[in-house]
Every structure is written in structure tokens, then in C-alpha cells.
Design brief:
With 283 residues, this protein is an alpha+beta fold. The chain is built from ten helices and ten strands. It has a five-stranded antiparallel β-sheet, with helices on both faces. The chain has a three-stranded mixed β-sheet with strand order 6-10-7, covered by helices on one side. Strands 8-9 form a two-stranded antiparallel ribbon. A hairpin with a 2-residue loop joins strand 8 and strand 9.
């Protein structure tokens, strides 16, 4: 259960409403009647991770309140104390996507185009920065398990270059299928807005396509780009550099493979990186 201070704050807002645990991830989640309490319980991340900040998510949810993006509505924020919390509306739906990948691609592309159409001018959102920080994380190293070290070396060389010119806009920054809630064959909501910021839209394309490559294979991931282009009308948001930059960030959190399933996932990851490396512009 939330600590005594959070419970007292919550009772002042909603009264004596039943509180039911919903799960633990980056936050501890609780159902509070028709609302959701998100408790930022990881004190180490609060101290060190600039993307694990409840005030950022609160700011982003306020920005999205008057848009067509189906995000939770912020009811209240408790930003002080060792475990800050947000109280939001509860978005209906289930994280289980439709069985037809074409429906997933089409609906997600339309939603991402809607997110990218948000004007963040008056919201003062954070500016995008990679998760990887050489001062903290050290030099990039080739995964010890790989049989294709050249792929990773070329990736690291590409990331050592200046990034391509890119128009920036509002992005989710961690946009992938597990953030989407579905009702039948439509997306009812998208959650986890702590990382919302202004940056290259290609980062959202990269993150969603990487996750598709891991869950559905590279061929399905490749189909998302034309679906997004059709939905958004933009043709210049993608560049393989963003695929590699996002993959480099993802590499920070990947453990050494131990099980057969992890080995298969690593192989898909490596295939995705290899595809991005091969599509880098020449010269």
C-alpha cells in the first residue's frame, strides 16, 4: 500500500475509496475507484534519472489534456516527499493488441501522427537527450555474446558522428506497443508519459519499430514506416541514425542472454541493428 503520507493526501482528495494494487513497474500502480494512483517508489532513480520525474509527467499530461491524444487526465500531483505520486483518470482497455498485425500498425501509426501533431510551445517540456551518457556509462562495448562484432562496431562509429539534421516536435520518447491500451480494434489510450519531450520524431519511430522487430520480426517492423507516413503526411522524420541511437540506448538495459528465448530476442535485436547499419547513407 502507499505510505501514510500518500494515503493521507489521497484521502483528502477522494475520501475513503477502496485502493487495489494494479502492479509494479517503473511505478507502483493502484486502482482508486475509477482513478489510478502512480507512486514513484524508486528513490535511487528519483535521485539519479532525469527521465524518472513526476513533475515532467504532470506537465506533459496537462499539455495533452486539450488534445486528441487519448492520455490519462491529471487529477492531482503530490511532488514532495520521498515517494511522489500522481492521481489520474483510468484509461479503459487492455494492453493485449489485436491479433492482426495490420490493425496494430495502422492504429499505432495514426496515434503517433496525432501525438506528433501536438504543439508543445506553451508547455515548456524537456528537451530530448539520449539515455547513454559516456561520462556515466563509459565507452560503448561490443556485446560479448555476438558472432557479428563488425555490426556493433559500425553502429558505434555511426553514433560517434554528428546526428543528421531533423525537424523536432513533441514526442512520447518511449512509444511501443506495451504503452497502448485497446478496446476491440481501436486504441483507447496511451500511458507512461514521464519521458514526453521535444526531440526528433524519428526516435518514436525507432522505438516502436525496434519493439515490433523483437515481437513480430523485422518484416513487420519495416511496414510501420509507410503506415506512419500515410497517417502523418511526413516523409522526412525517419533516418537510420535514429534507429541506431535508440538501439544504443536499449543496449544499456539488456542482460546477457541465458535462456533460449533471450538468445532469440538478442538475435532479433542484432538483426535490427544490422538492417539499420546497412541503410545508412553512403559517404
Amino acid at each position: 500500500m502507499p505510505n501514510a503520507e500518500t494515503l493521507a493526501w489521497l484521502r483528502e482528495l477522494v475520501g475513503d475509496v477502496p485502493i487495489e494494487p494494479m502492479g509494479v513497474g517503473a511505478n507502483r500502480l493502484y486502482a482508486v475507484g475509477d482513478l489510478v494512483l502512480r507512486v514513484f517508489h524508486d528513490t535511487d532513480r528519483l535521485a539519479a534519472d532525469p527521465w524518472y520525474r513526476p513533475e515532467r509527467e504532470a506537465r506533459t499530461l496537462r499539455l495533452l489534456a486539450d488534445t486528441a491524444v487519448p492520455a490519462p487526465e491529471l487529477i492531482a500531483a503530490r511532488l514532495d516527499g520521498p515517494t511522489p505520486a500522481l492521481l489520474t483518470t483510468r484509461v479503459p482497455g487492455t494492453p493485449e493488441p489485436p491479433g492482426d498485425p495490420a490493425v496494430l500498425l495502422s492504429c499505432a501509426a495514426e496515434l503517433l501522427a496525432t501525438i506528433h501533431a501536438v504543439d508543445p510551445t506553451d508547455a515548456d517540456p524537456a528537451a530530448y537527450a539520449p539515455y547513454y551518457d559516456p561520462a556515466v556509462d563509459g565507452a560503448r562495448t561490443v556485446p560479448s555474446w555476438t558472432t557479428r562484432p563488425r555490426v556493433w562496431q559500425r553502429m558505434f562509429a555511426a553514433l560517434a558522428e554528428e546526428p543528421p539534421d531533423a525537424a523536432t516536435g513533441f514526442i512520447h520518447r518511449d512509444f511501443h506497443a506495451e504503452q497502448l491500451l485497446w478496446l476491440d480494434e481501436r486504441i483507447a489510450g496511451v500511458v507512461d508519459w514521464t519521458t514526453g519531450c521535444v526531440g526528433p520524431r524519428g526516435i518514436d519511430l525507432a522505438r516502436f519499430r525496434l519493439n515490433l522487430a523483437l515481437t513480430h520480426g523485422v518484416a513487420v517492423a519495416e511496414e510501420f514506416l509507410p503506415a506512419y507516413t500515410k497517417a502523418s503526411g511526413r516523409t522526412d522524420d525517419h533516418h537510420p541514425y535514429w534507429d541506431l541511437l535508440d538501439a544504443g540506448d536499449a543496449l544499456l538495459d539488456w542482460p546477457e542472454p541465458e535462456t533460449r528465448a533471450q538468445i532469440v530476442e538478442w538475435q532479433r535485436f542484432e538483426a535490427w541493428v544490422g538492417r539499420a547499419v546497412r541503410t545508412l547513407p553512403k559517404g
